[in-house]
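Running this now, will post back.
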Amino acid sequence: MARERRSATGHYADRVSNSRTDVLRAARDILREHSLADLSMRRLATELGVRPNALYWHFPNKQTLLAALADDILGAVVIPASDLAWDERLQLLATGMRAALLDVPDSAEVVSSSWASGLSTKAITADIVAAAHAGSLSLRDAEAVSTAVCQLVIGLTIEEQTRAQMERLGVTGPSGRNFDGEFVDGLTIILDGARTRAGD
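Update: finished.
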């Protein structure tokens, strides 16, 4: 197996070839060490030690790369067991989704744009709908709960990650906001509303 090392010419320059997993991992590294603005196909190719056109074997353009990256990031969310209470499953999915996004800087923006483009699978939304539907909510109401949960998680995380970057660059000082508290409060209201609707 080819030895892997970080180097001035690319993080994975010792690899003879790069798999789809290698490309996505390198993209994550760029987000962690730099920002979404620095994630270009050319920069990614440099990190991998290949020519830019080599990346098109896996991804025909940057949009499909970002969509795959969004799916990969949210793929880290652990899906709760189906025998748990439906509202507990919703809570675990929401907190797991938030944790997965916070683990990779700018990932909430990646997910948001990829979902808007229609290129991402949005697989986690099906899990959220299934959990809500298990609570005797109609399919329409379950889908509404999924929308509310995802908008809370993604929207709030975009704000938190953007603010963190601004503070890191010295653009602004600490906001004093308790993003964790805002998330818990927002999720509590969504779950309370879902429980009320389920009891109707």
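The domain at 20-60 is CATH 1.10.10.60 (Arc Repressor Mutant, subunit A). More later if anyone needs it.
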